[in-house]
Amino acid sequence: MSSTKRDRADGERNVLDLRGYVPYFLTAISNTWSRSSSRLYLERFGVGVTEWRVISQLAIEPRIAAQRICEVIGLDKGAVSRSVAALVAAGHVTEFADGRDARRQLLQLTASGHALHDRLITLAIAREQIMLEGFTAQERTQLLGFLHRLQARLPALRDGQEKGRLGEAEADEPRMEKPRGGEVSPRSEGRDTDERR
Length: 197
Hints:
Elements: E1 4-6, E2 14-16, H1 22-45, H2 49-60, H3 66-73, H4 77-89, E3 93-98, E4 101-109, H5 111-131, H6 137-152, H7 154-158, H8 163-172, E5 175-177, E6 185-187
Antiparallel strand pairs: 1-2, 3-4, 5-6
Helix pairs in contact: 2-5, 3-4
């Protein structure tokens, strides 16, 4: 299925066809999952979905730095730092200096952190089962295979490898810039700054 379709209004402009646009499904599923998970985890355990992601990663890889968590779960440093600080304050995570590099702080779960993990993982797995209800074992394996392949393409987006492919499309489009009035307007090629004042 194509990712675009013709605009019904003029029949010439391509618009997204969300039924065939993969990033739409990834975003919609991720956002709904995260919001509902965070609400449920906060109600039952007093932690949000980001804290749960930190806890789960520390259970998988004990004694790691916050940067490692950012790399695995794809969150920015600020979000992870805030979650770690909240978990440390609650007594679920402890920080200590790396023996090989005193400037580097490592993290690990405390006894209460492991206990919280064991309660959270039961709920997380139950929610996963609800989402995958109706899928056969083979279909789940296929789905995971496709997701692994998509994940393997992420470095191309992070490292800017897509710029060569997108260069031609970018060159054909007017750039957007914010004038002094605060409104965003397109800038055509070669247009002088004085014309916009």
